[in-house]
Amino acid sequence: MSTLVLELRQGDLLVVNGAPLRFRNRARVELTSRARFLFGKQIMEAAAANTPARRFYFALQTAYVGRDEEREHALEIARDIALAARDAAASPQVQELLDSAIIAAERDECYQALKLARRLMQHEDAPPGAASAAEPGR
Description:
Strand content: 15-25%
Largest sheet: 3 strands, antiparallel
């Protein structure tokens, strides 16, 4: 793996391998080995998981950067949410996003799964009848 450099501002939160780190001042961080991490707006607080798509994202987030003992259970929760949402979804695009996100998470490609879950949140937030951000190619 090549080195990944992150520029973080004062107050930013970075979660690395389940450990939350809050920056007291501006910092430049280099990750020199493989790590599970999220930072900034990618991190969802539990209280914000108040819709089906957001609960799905939060479960995937926990499966990705949660503590070791949380990760498998969180993936099970994500599977359950995806199954219920898939059954309720009329949109083939939403069903495809759910399926693709779960497949990615099961392959330990959780960052990709989270990207797909963010598209589901955009779809959920779109006004009825609007062009969906969840449609393929967007």
